[in-house]
Design a protein that fits this description.
The protein is α/β, with parallel strands linked by helices. Helices cover 27% and strands 32% of the residues. The radius of gyration is 34 Å and the shape is rod-shaped.
Length: 427
């Protein structure tokens, strides 16, 4: 094995073309330094086939490799400071347990390059026409910028921290600008300091990561229908993601997705509900009842839950007293219904006694808001019914008028409104 202690010995080793090269491969492909680190300043290596060579314990400062072919080469326990790889090729190459500081890969072609346990500070990949199977894994901080690069199968694993490698404030910063990124995987990455700008993103996977509101913006595009995958944990870990980003990058058309997921993944307690409605609106009432039951909300719906052998008013009064809220489905028919008005009066009475919010209106037409007091019949009930109506009008009534007919219902808009209803019924 070669012992290299000087710059000239290094250049002689890296450019060696002895006729016995193949037979003495191990001797020529490996070296060791005399003691400590071998330090090389301002070394320039041009147009050399650096095949199956192993670099060890070497510090490169202000060095440049131009037009070199790093085929199956391995760098381990090295340091690169202010170095450049220009128009180089990397195939099945590895950088292991080393530092890359203020260094650049310019116009390089990369196929299967592994950076493992590498500390990268201000590392730049620029104008690289093909980066295929670049793998980043292990210990060490990562501050890397990609500009105008084509990246395919980029695989980034989380930084592992230990006593020897404690987590620092800005240990992870990955910036992508004007890049094409395809079929790549980001797993448990801290993207809070990172940005993607003017990139084409196709079939990338983001799992258990942390984003900031600045990580992605509307300048990024997704070609065709090749949307990218973002998992539940990333959405929950991150602040609310901008609607245009969700739509155009991840194919998610709901800006409320984070709140939906919180509902799905958190234990939420709901108020119990007495549903007040006209029998003429029973189909819609059954739909609402079924949706609430599926979400774990306890309800009373007359057709399903009223017991036999008791007076109607007793059933209504006792169940309104038992349940937390009265969900009133306001329509022309329910407001004209004596039974529904009785239920509203009992709900209002409970509200005044307990000082709790009891009445909860939704409406399926505008009769609640168009009605005048003088129109109320019978006259003797006019004051009581009007107090009920005035109390309902004080509250924000959700408008379900476009969703009564299931055949013409926009399911996406209906689901969003249901979400607002359910959100209002939380304890």
């Amino acid at each position: 094995m070669n012992i290299i202690t000087t710059k000239d010995e290094f250049l002689d080793w890296i450019t060696k073309t002895d006729s016995d090269y193949n037979e003495k491969g191990f001797k020529y492909n490996n070296y060791r330094v005399g003691s400590g680190m071998l330090t090389l300043n301002e070394v320039v290596v041009e147009r050399v086939d650096i095949t199956y060579k192993s670099f060890i314990a070497t510090e490169f400062k202000n060095c440049a490799f131009v037009g070199c072919d790093f085929n199956h080469s391995v760098f381990s326990s090295c340091t690169f400071i202010d170095c450049k790889f220009i128009d180089c090729k990397f195939y099945e190459s590895k950088f292991l347990e080393l530092d890359l500081v203020d260094s650049t890969f310019d116009s390089c072609t990369i196929m299967c390059l592994e950076l493992s346990d590498v500390i990268t500070e201000r590392l730049l990949f620029i104008d690289c026409p093909e980066i295929l199977d670049l793998r980043l894994r292990g210990f060490g901080s990562r501050i890397i910028t990609f500009i105008r690069c084509y990246l395919h199968h980029l695989d980034i694993e989380p930084i592992r921290f230990s006593d020897s490698f404690p987590k620092e404030k800005d240990s992870e910063k990955l910036d992508f600008k004007d890049c094409v990124i395809k079929e790549s995987s980001f797993d448990r990455i801290d993207f809070k300091k990172s940005v993607f700008r003017h990139c084409s993103l196709s079939l990338i996977q983001i799992s258990s990561c942390e984003l900031s509101s600045e990580t992605f913006d509307y300048s990024n595009k997704t070609p065709g229908n090749e949307f990218n995958m973002i998992d539940i944990r990333t959405i929950l870990n991150s602040p609310t993601i901008e609607k245009t980003v969700l739509e155009h990058i991840f194919g998610i058309n709901s800006s409320d997705i984070k709140e939906y997921l919180i509902d799905l993944t958190s234990e939420i307690q709901f108020q119990s509900i007495f549903i007040s409605y006209s029998f003429k609106d029973q189909q819609f009432a059954k739909t609402i009842n079924e949706i609430l039951n599926r979400r774990g909300i306890i309800t009373f719906l007359w057709e399903y839950d009223s017991p036999g052998g008791k007076t109607l008013k007793n059933i209504m009064s006792s169940n309104i007293k038992e349940k937390d809220r009265v969900l009133f489905i306001a329509s022309k028919d329910s407001i004209k219904s004596k039974a529904c008005q009785f239920e509203l009066s009992k709900g209002r009475e409970k509200q005044e006694i307990t000082w709790n919010d009891v009445l909860f209106p939704i409406h399926i037409d505008n009769f609640l808001f168009d009605l005048e007091k003088e129109q109320i019949r019978p006259i003797e009930n006019q004051d009581e019914y009007w107090k009920n109506i005035e109390e309902l009008r004080k509250l924000n009534s959700l408008d379900f008028s476009d969703f009564v007919n299931p055949d013409s219902r926009d399911e996406h808009k209906f689901e969003k409104l249901i979400y607002r209803l359910i959100k209002g019924l939380r304890k």
